[in-house]
């Protein structure tokens, strides 16, 4: 178990072993949320924009390979975010 202390500016330093295990680097985004048992959970946001567009490109192309419309891109982004939502049983 790792422990971090909150500073007067409400900041913490993530322990090195956690940063390395979850590939948390400067600029990484972390999601803070509460599970159904009322526990604070922290999960790294691992879906990158490039991955979302690559997924959309590979899965949403029409047979004539036309460019995607704004609506199709919005739908793809919404689907990717829905898939990335953490499960209450996940632990960090």
> How many strands in all?
2
Mean pLDDT: 79
> What is the percentage of strand-forming residues?
5-15%
- Helix count equals 3
Principal-axes shape call: elongated
The share of residues in helices is: 25-40%
Describe the sheet with the most strands: 2 strands, antiparallel
**N-to-C series of helices and strands:** HEEHH
- Domain count: the total is 1
Contiguous low-pLDDT stretches (5 residues minimum) are none
First-last Cα distance = 10 Å
Strand order of the largest sheet: 1-2
Give the structural class. alpha+beta
Query: Which value, in Å, is the CA radius of gyration?
Result: 17 Å
Question: What's the short story on this structure?
Answer:
By secondary structure, the protein is α+β, with helices and mostly antiparallel strands.
Structure, described:
The chain contains 3 helices and 2 strands. It has one domain (16-83). It has helices at 16-21, 49-59, 70-83; strands at 30-34, 40-44. By secondary structure, it is of the alpha+beta class. Helices cover 34% and strands 11% of the residues. Strands 1-2 form a two-stranded antiparallel ribbon. A hairpin with a 5-residue loop joins strand 1 and strand 2 (40-44). The longest helix is centred in the C-terminal third of the chain and has 14 residues, at 70-83. It is elongated. The termini are close together.
Characteristic terms for this protein:
34% helix; AbrB/MazE/SpoVT family DNA-binding domain-containing protein; 92 residues; alpha+beta; single chain; 3 helices; SpoVT-AbrB_sf
